[in-house]
Amino acid sequence: MPGLTIGDTIPNLELETTHGKIKIHDYVGDSFCIIFSHPADFTPVCTSELGGMAKCMPEFQKSGVKLLGVSCDDVESHKEWIKDVEAFTPGSHVRYPIAADPKREAIKQLNMVDPYEKDAEGKPLPSRALHIVGPDKKVKASMLYPASTGRSMEEVLRVVQSLQLAAKYMVATPVNWKPGDPVVISPGVSDQEAKRMFPQGFEVKDLPSKKGYLRFTQIES
Ligand code: BEZ
After folding, report:
1. From atom 1 of ligand 1, which residue's Cα is the shortest distance away?
2. pLDDT tens digits for the chain (221 residues)?
3. Of 195, 198, 167, whose CA–CA distance to 182 is shortest?
4. Which residues are tagged catalytic?
5. Where does the signal sequence lie (predicted)?
């Protein structure tokens, strides 16, 4: 995603949303925030994704994560569309704001333009782009999918929980990690420091190299 990558500050755009005008940095505040775009209102995959996000909202809230949707259509269209979204995904309530971007200025600055998808007038449409932004307003992770592939909300939640763990402890999460699974201690932490930082102990995997770099520990949530 050239132009906006890990470590970059998210542009502090003023956006028209279903919850009124917001400035991105004020909205993020002291939280993690997921900013995710959709190609267009009243389209099948997008309708399922918006409902999926809404259904996961209690989980995101438990982790202190805010959500902000982006779709180019106007706010009135978004408000009508939300009725379909909630009807399609029973139990979902779209309580997060969805920004409008009829001029396609925000999606350009947020690096969310799909190079192939166009609307009926030939105007660019957003890809399924998603930035996880930290309380410091910097991009911590991004995902970029085409219009044809709906995202896994479980994966989005898993990534945000991994980022939050890594921000709090000097750890990282290995392949297919799920919340509650053991984590690995970051390579920059010496064994001596690890003994102090992880009083619960850690297991060093015995590998052919004998380098002792794969160290698992358990973090209680
Ligand atoms: C969809 O949400 O289903 C969709 C939107 C734009 C292009 C293709 C699919």
Report:
1. 45
2. 458 999 999 999 999 999 999 999 999 999 999 999 999 999 999 999 999 999 999 999 999 999 999 999 999 999 999 999 999 999 999 999 999 999 999 999 999 999 999 999 999 999 999 999 999 999 999 999 999 999 999 999 999 999 999 999 999 999 999 999 999 999 999 999 999 999 999 999 999 999 999 999 999 86
3. 198
4. 46
5. none
Separation between Cα atoms, residue 87 and residue 126, nearest integer Å: 24
Return the ∠ at Cα 107 (arms to 103 and 109), rounded to 5°: 105
Show the beta-strand stretches assigned E in 78-138. Answer: 98-100, 113-118, 124-126, 128-133
How many angstroms is it from 215 CA to the middle of ligand 1? 43
pTM: 0.95
**Could you tell me if the CB of 147 is within 6 A of ligand 1?**
yes
How many whole angstroms from 145 Cα to the centroid of ligand 1? 11
Start-to-end CA distance of the chain, whole Å, equals 33
120 within ligand 1 shell (Cβ under 6 A): no
Question: Quick one: which of 92, 17, 85 has its CA closest to 46?
Answer: 85
Q: 146: CA distance to ligand 1 center in Å?
A: 9
Do 129 and 111 meet the contact criterion of CB atoms below 8 Å apart? yes
| 200: number of Cβ within 10 Å | 9
